């Protein structure tokens, strides 16, 4: 008679420890702190605007680097809303990640874990379907572009200055992408990289060089222009609605005449398009173009 | 509300290119890449790998359990077949034994009956003989009496008894023939 007991291996996740619970709440609070801090900063540091002003980021202070012989534009480093808000987004995303992945378990079904797995799997699927196989290191980078861009643009929902409406911020990303494109092109060898500019005929070389450098510029300006123009239009619409309110309800007695009734509700609809939709769309487009350019630049994989 | 602290109240132009700000932006992107890699992708991938390992392990043990169950089923099916066979054997043995026993009983009964009949026959024959003897004696007595009465005198019983017996024997012989 055979009496072999089937080997029983219990797969039970350990119960949620107190440490996990405490840390989860801690990360959650720390995640919200940058946003609250940014709003407070904005409240105290932004002077009230008079009339319709379309400006870039506010300069909080300027750091003068101790190199006397450098020209002024390079010597001076203005710390603006862009830098501060970018840092806030970074902090937010850092604690967001910690919050999502705190106490992950193989059988976990918490909403946080599901969201974390969803993000990772979606981005990996997105990258592998766009770039093909062999780019295992790319998903975190593409995810970084998507999140940094999207959350930077979404900061405008909190009334903060969106770093993506600063050409320097988006330009920096585009330069990084350009460097990566060039690096992948150089993988095939310097000779073939140079030869690529002489095709189809050597006369076109200047135009090829021009188109090469237009790639990061077009990427940067596409993103920057979309987000900034959204802000400009929002400003204009606000001003216009204020004027319209004064014209229509100005006859109301006392302070009632000063209330800009038309500013209630109507800008929210615009905000859904310019902040939510456009912001996420531009993030997607930037990530998509990054992947496309890099996978096009990479030499054809033959043996590897 | 007046602006406080260190704010200069100055703004950048809408388009203003600054070298250092671009560098900072690049660094921000790289930092976020490292953050996501370390704090999002690594733990999630580890969890997914753990889950995959567990699922594979469970599949393996399920397969093992299934094959084990199949082996046991085959074993029991075979055993069940053997049990049928032996049950049939037992039943047929019992039937045979019962038949034998029945034959034995019936045979014994027949023998007994035969024996009883035989004894009865013997008894009957004896009784008949006895009855015949009695009848014979009776007849001879009656004959003697009748003869006495007919003759009116005493006959010597011994002489006549001899004669009558002879007569009856003749009769018997005549009967037998």
List keywords for this structure.
A: 304 residues; mainly alpha; 9 helices; B: 177 residues; 2 helices; rod-shaped
Folded structure, characterized:
The complex is a heterodimer of chains A (304) and B (177). Chain A has nine helices and two strands, in the order αβαβααααααα. Chain A is mainly alpha-helical. Chain A has two domains: 17-45 and 57-63 and 72-103; 110-155 and 165-304, no CATH class. Chain A has a two-stranded antiparallel ribbon with strand order 1-2. In chain A, α3 (81-101) crosses α4 and α3 (81-101) packs across α5. Chain A is globular, with a radius of gyration of 25 Å. The termini of chain A are far apart. Chain B is mostly helical. Helix content of chain B is 86%, strand content 1%. At the A-B interface, α1, β1, β2, α3 and α4 of A face β1 and α1 of B. β1 (58-64) of chain A pairs antiparallel with β1 of chain B.
Q: How many strand segments of chain B?
A: 1
N to C succession of SSEs of chain B: EHH
Shape of chain B: rod-shaped
Question: Which stretches of chain B are poorly predicted, pLDDT < 50 over at least 5 residues?
Answer: 1-7
Q: Mind telling me the C-alpha Rg of chain A? A: 25 Å
Question: Helicity range of the residues of chain A?
Answer: 55-70%
The largest β sheet of chain A comes out as: 2 strands, antiparallel
Number of strands of chain A: 2
Strand content of chain A is under 5%
What would the average pLDDT of chain B be, to the nearest integer? 85
How many separate structural domains of chain A? 2
Instruction: Give the strand content of chain B.
Output: under 5%
Cα separation of the termini of chain A: 55 Å
What oligomeric state do these chains adopt? Answer: heterodimer
The residue-averaged pLDDT of chain A reads: 84
Q: DSSP helix count of chain B?
A: 2
End-to-end span of chain B in angstroms? 170 Å
Number of helices of chain A: 9
Shape label of chain A: globular
The helix-strand sequence of chain A is HEHEHHHHHHH
């Amino acid at each position: 008679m055979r009496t072999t007991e089937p080997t029983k291996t219990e797969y039970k996740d350990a119960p949620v420890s107190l440490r996990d619970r405490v840390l989860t709440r801690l990360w959650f609070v720390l995640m919200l702190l940058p946003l609250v801090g940014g709003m407070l900063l904005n409240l105290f540091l932004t002077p009230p605007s008079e009339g319709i002003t379309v400006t870039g980021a506010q300069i909080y202070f300027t750091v003068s680097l101790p190199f006397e012989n450098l020209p002024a534009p390079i010597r001076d480093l203005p710390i603006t809303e862009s830098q501060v808000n970018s840092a806030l987004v970074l902090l937010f995303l850092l604690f967001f990640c910690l919050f999502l992945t705190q106490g992950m378990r193989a059988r976990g079904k918490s909403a946080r874990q599901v969201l974390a797995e969803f993000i990772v799997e979606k981005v990996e699927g997105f990258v592998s379907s766009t770039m093909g196989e062999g780019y295992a290191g790319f998903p975190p980078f593409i995810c970084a572009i998507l999140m940094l861009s999207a959350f930077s643009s979404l900061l405008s929902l909190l009334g903060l200055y969106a770093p993506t409406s600063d050409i320097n911020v988006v330009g920096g990303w585009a330069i990084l992408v350009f460097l990566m494109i060039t690096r992948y092109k150089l993988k095939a060898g310097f000779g073939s990289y140079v030869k690529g500019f002489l095709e189809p005929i050597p006369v076109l070389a200047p135009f090829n060089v021009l188109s090469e450098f237009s790639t990061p510029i077009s990427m940067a300006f596409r993103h920057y222009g979309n987000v900034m123009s959204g802000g400009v239009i929002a400003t204009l619409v606000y001003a216009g609605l204020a004027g319209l309110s004064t014209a229509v309800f100005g006859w109301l007695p006392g302070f009632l005449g000063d209330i800009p009734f038309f500013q209630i509700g109507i800008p929210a609809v615009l905000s859904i398009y310019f902040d939510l939709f456009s912001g996420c769309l531009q993030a997607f487009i930037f990530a998509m173009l990054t992947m496309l350019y890099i996978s096009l630049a990479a030499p054809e994989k033959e043996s590897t | 509300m007046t602006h406080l602290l260190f704010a200069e109240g100055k703004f950048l132009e809408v388009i203003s290119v600054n070298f250092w700000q671009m560098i900072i932006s690049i660094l921000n992107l790289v930092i976020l890449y490292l953050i996501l890699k370390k704090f999002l992708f690594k733990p999630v991938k580890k969890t997914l790998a753990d889950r995959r390992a567990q699922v594979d392990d469970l599949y393996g043990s399920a397969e093992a359990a299934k094959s084990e169950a199949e082996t046991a089923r085959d074993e029991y099916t075979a055993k069940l077949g053997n049990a049928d066979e032996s049950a049939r054997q037992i039943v047929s043995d019992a039937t045979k034994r019962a038949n034998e026993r029945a034959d034995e009983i019936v045979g014994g009964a027949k023998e007994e009956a035969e024996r009883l009949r035989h004894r009865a026959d013997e008894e009957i024959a004896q009784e008949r003989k006895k009855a015949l003897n009695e009848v014979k004696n009776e007849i001879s007595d009656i004959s003697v009496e009748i003869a006495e009465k007919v003759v009116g005198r005493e006959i010597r019983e011994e002489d006549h008894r001899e004669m009558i017996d002879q007569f009856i024997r003749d009769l018997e012989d005549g009967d037998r023939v």
